[in-house]
Amino acid sequence: MSRNQIHIEFASKTPFAGGVSFGNTGPYERLLGTASFAIDPNEKDLPFIVDLNLAPRNPEGLVEFKTILDIVKPADLSRGNRRLLFDFSNRGGRGAFTRLNDGGGPDLSKQSYAGNGFLNRRGYTVVSAGWQGDLVYNGSNVVAFLPEARENGRPLRGKVRQEFISDKPGVLSMPVSGNANIQCYPVLSRATATLTRREKEADPRVAVPDDEWELAKAKESDGKVELTPSNTDLYIKGGFRTGWIYELIYETEGSRVMGLGFLGLRDLVAFLRYGKSDAGGVANPLAGAVDKAYGYGASLAGRVVREYIYEGWNRDAEGRKVFDAVLTHTGIGRLYFNMRFAQIGRYPRQHEEHSWPSERYPFNFTPIPDPFTGKVDSVLKRPDTDPLIVHSHTAGEYWERHGSMTHTDPRDGSDVEIPANVHMYALAGAPHAAIAADNPRWIGQLPPNNISPQPFLRACFVLMDRWATTGEAPPPSRVPRRSEKTLVSPEEALARFPKIPGVNLPATPSRLPYWNYGPDFDDRGIMSIFPPEKLAGKEY
């Protein structure tokens, strides 16, 4: 019997989308509050959590943390479809109503948030909760509040690396996390910190002279720059060079036990699906009304779903399946998450952050040997509790995010058979995210691609539900194949692209080297080589 405890508390109960009625389902309501956890670190068969042994314990020997909890459900649950959709958050945001309903926005009380009502008319209960422990809580995002690991009563110390890029001139200072929405690891000593810059990822790193930077927050007023000393802000004299990559490596302290975020999601969804009341006797608001539980995530949230399944969280402490099926879109790769001094939002992009551990083996849903370590691993490896998966990606994932790795062999690039419990689709010509043609932040040489995947995702969602409910599988997977010559090397694709005046092609494809992060990285989640080493002759 599990010793894990969950306590739910709702601060508000309000009409959703202005109280509008959605066909036979009727109106919806929103329950907003928190879920608090006290978990047994010695749970049998608990998936590995980095530094869990260093997390503080309460008098019962349990580890405590909490998360924001947001439930949107039919006001009359008997009119719902007995299905829970868990909306895996992307950096604290909610995506299901945006992608599946063509709605979304900052205010869930407005009718426009429900968009076309797709999920509501069908009777779904939609749940969001925080899992990411490094976000700045702004009062509306879904975040997790996780404990810091401590050794001999003190915060852990270690080294971290940060990258900064300013896409506009005149930026004098930035948070050392690189983003105002991400909590910073403080710089303990400027004397031991190093700062370099380079124009392109592959360029040599050039040290920024000591007299050109400070640990400070800058404010410009009447042509004068005022500096406020800060160990969480980086100031560059004269401003950051537009588009250049700045890299700061320094000693810090205060590493959260990030892996607890997934444990919280597991226990929360299992409670909402199977539980009657919490540890304090508070009734489960969905008790007896959930037959199926589904997960949805796109982009970072899609990678979260993959990592959640890979780490083994789809089996709860009682051995029950948590999610019956999941829909993931544009979620290529893994996460810099369950590690010491994790930086969850980092991932390889077209220009920057190529060496962060967000895309690493295993890539496939089936067991394929790693060509460099000999290890045999797979995203799916627990047939009793693995969910059904509908996975889609776009052309953007092939050009920038190594999307072909999900269905090719990392040893030679040959086609890999996609397992029967995964249906995978590639949307040719579609972007990672549709962007309006008049978007003022767009910096590309050509107008942005505004093809929307939303109609396709709604179809996939209906097919996923049918698959989990009746056993009728979706249409066969459709992805580019080497055997069909619909998947070719980047060099061949660039060579065959027509020459168009005013159109510049990428100088080189996005490479994926085998990076060396240090001897304790794979087994203990501790990075010790800064920057990581690119090993000669080892590239996926």
List the helices and strands and how they pair.
Blueprint: E1 5-15, E2 21-22, E3 26-39, E4 63-74, E5 83-87, H1 96-99, H2 118-121, E6 125-129, E7 144-145, E8 150-151, E9 154-155, E10 157-164, E11 173-175, E12 194-198, E13 206-207, E14 213-214, E15 216-221, E16 224-229, E17 233-236, E18 245-253, H3 260-274, E19 292-298, H4 300-311, E20 325-329, E21 368-369, E22 376-377, E23 388-394, H5 395-400, E24 422-427, H6 454-470, H7 490-496, E25 513-516, H8 521-524, E26 533-539
Parallel strand pairs: 5-6, 5-19, 19-20, 20-23, 23-24
Antiparallel strand pairs: 1-3, 2-3, 3-4, 4-6, 4-7, 8-9, 10-18, 11-17, 12-13, 12-18, 14-17, 15-16, 21-22, 25-26
Describe this structure in words.
This protein is of the alpha+beta class. The chain has 2 domains: 5-147 and 257-490, Rossmann fold (3-Layer(aba) Sandwich); 157-253, no CATH class. It has 8 helices and 26 strands. The protein has helices spanning 96-99, 118-121, 260-274, 300-311, 395-400, 454-470, 490-496, 521-524; strands spanning 5-15, 21-22, 26-39, 63-74, 83-87, 125-129, 144-145, 150-151, 154-155, 157-164, 173-175, 194-198, 206-207, 213-214, 216-221, 224-229, 233-236, 245-253, 292-298, 325-329, 368-369, 376-377, 388-394, 422-427, 513-516, 533-539. The strands form 7 sheets. Strands 1, 2, 3, 4, 5, 6, 7, 19, 20, 23 and 24 form an 11-stranded mixed beta sheet that branches.
